[in-house]
Write a structure and sequence with these properties.
It contains 13 helices and twelve strands. The chain is α/β, with parallel strands linked by helices and 416 residues long. The strands form two sheets. It has a seven-stranded mixed β-sheet, sandwiched between helices. A hairpin with a 4-residue loop joins β7 and β8. α1 packs parallel to α2, α5 packs across α6 and α5 crosses α11.
Length: 416
């Protein structure tokens, strides 16, 4: 994500050109606070190694800073700054009372043992805990971090402050105070919006072809939801392959899921599909080619910068839903919008995740435990209401949904 913060500021200025926020917008041009540290930990072989770590607190006008911590060799301050800004926009897009922050450690977590990972996770909290807290800054998992890492971090914070404070971190395991429904929240939120759009456009799901890039948590859960709703899945991809079919029935979700679990790769036909009588005529492509699938709806649930100026002209979908962060480059988006393709932007489409993180924080603060059904029930109106507010702004200014989402968010942030 080279020059990610520059891209973020370009998006900010595009929104400002239309809505003319004046000097009030200056508070969003730089983070409120940038924290950095060298985390020294003892490795299993007895040697000591230092890892560079960051926590960027962008804006807390609407509530505590909120955002994940990623463990990745390519983490940079520029990237973390940009991601913290986008979190500020995302939390305001769905109207939850939180701000934006982000953290990261420059590390290849796959090169560390579980014990080393635990020491590193606890060292992160030791370095920054005075700037964290349920009402100050609430981290969460991100790339290469999970509920186990969050449990270690929350435990370390409790030790350092002398009292259990589960609300300091979200994305924890259920036993440590995590929320039911967090595992499916990103897909649930995106699906609520997609369903609403389909109704508005009077589109029949049973005649609508969908392709999904990515079969991780968000992509696989989204595939399950669209399949259950009657959409025809004509294309799927994971990190190793893409499968596409022209069969009118499309792929059966349960079959692909079983194959992924069994073989570690999605496929459309083997002895299991033969036995079930669902062996479809299909073609294997390289994963990035899924974007060119002949479909009505393209769901991007993999990585950033997937739709670029190089492949934007090959996109055949009429609707794009961004479940991943930043999957469409600004230059590619310009091309797609000229062709009247509807893009539901990441700051709205995948905000179900941060909304349910907020629910976890709220449950921890109040000492409550909500059921999975309650979580979904509370999530749906937030997503739909936010979508309608953004559509109204898009119509008012005759602009795309991403710029409208930024305007909607900025209005809420600078009000405070």
């Amino acid at each position: 994500m080279a020059k990610a913060f520059t891209n973020a500021m370009t998006q900010l200025s595009q929104a400002d050109k239309i809505a003319k926020f004046g000097k009030a917008i200056d508070q969003l041009k730089q983070p409120k606070k940038i924290l950095s540290a060298q985390l020294k930990i003892k490795l299993d072989n007895g040697q000591t190694k230092a890892f560079k770590a960051f926590r960027v607190q962008h804006n807390d006008n609407r509530g505590p800073f909120k955002g994940g911590i990623r463990f990745h060799p390519q983490v940079s301050l520029d990237e973390v700054k940009a991601l913290s800004f986008w979190m500020t926009i995302k939390t305001a897009t769905v109207g939850i009372p939180m701000g934006g922050g982000k953290g990261g450690i420059i590390v290849d977590p796959k090169a560390l043992s579980q014990a080393e990972l635990e020491r590193l996770s606890r060292a992160y909290i030791k370095a920054f805990y005075k700037n964290l807290g349920p009402k100050i800054d609430v981290p969460a998992p991100d790339v290469n971090t999970n509920s186990q890492i969050m449990d270690w971090m929350a435990d370390e914070y409790s030790k350092l402050t002398g009292q259990p404070q589960p609300a300091v971190i979200t994305g924890k395991s259920i036993k440590a105070g995590g929320s039911l429904g967090r595992d499916t929240a990103t897909a649930d939120g995106g699906f609520f919006i997609l369903s609403d759009l389909i109704k508005q456009l009077k589109i029949n799901p049973k005649k609508t072809r969908v392709a999904i890039q990515g079969f991780g948590n968000a992509g696989a859960n989204m595939a399950k939801l669209v399949y259950k709703a009657g959409f025809i899945i004509v294309g799927l991809s994971d990190s190793k392959t893409a499968i596409v079919t022209t069969d009118k029935k499309g792929f059966r979700f349960s079959t692909v899921k079983k194959l992924k679990e069994k073989n570690g790769i999605i496929d459309g036909c083997d002895e299991m599909t033969e036995k079930n009588g669902t062996c479809l005529e299909h073609q294997h492509l390289s994963p990035e080619k899924i974007i060119e699938t002949d479909c009505d709806i393209l769901i991007l649930a993999a990585l950033e910068n997937q739709v670029t100026t190089q492949n934007a002209d090959q996109v055949k979908a009429k609707i794009i839903l961004e479940l991943a962060n930043g999957p469409t480059t600004p230059q590619a988006e310009t091309k797609l919008l000229k062709r009247s393709i509807i893009i539901i932007p990441d700051v709205l489409a995948n905000a179900g995740g941060v909304t349910v993180s907020y629910f976890e924080w709220l449950q921890n603060i109040k000492g409550q435990k909500w059921s999975r059904a309650q979580v979904r029930q509370k999530l749906q109106p937030i997503m739909i209401k936010s979508f309608h507010r953004i559509q109204k702004i898009a119509k008012q200014y005759q602009i795309d949904l991403r710029t409208a989402a930024f305007i909607s968010a900025i209005k809420l942030i600078i009000k405070k």
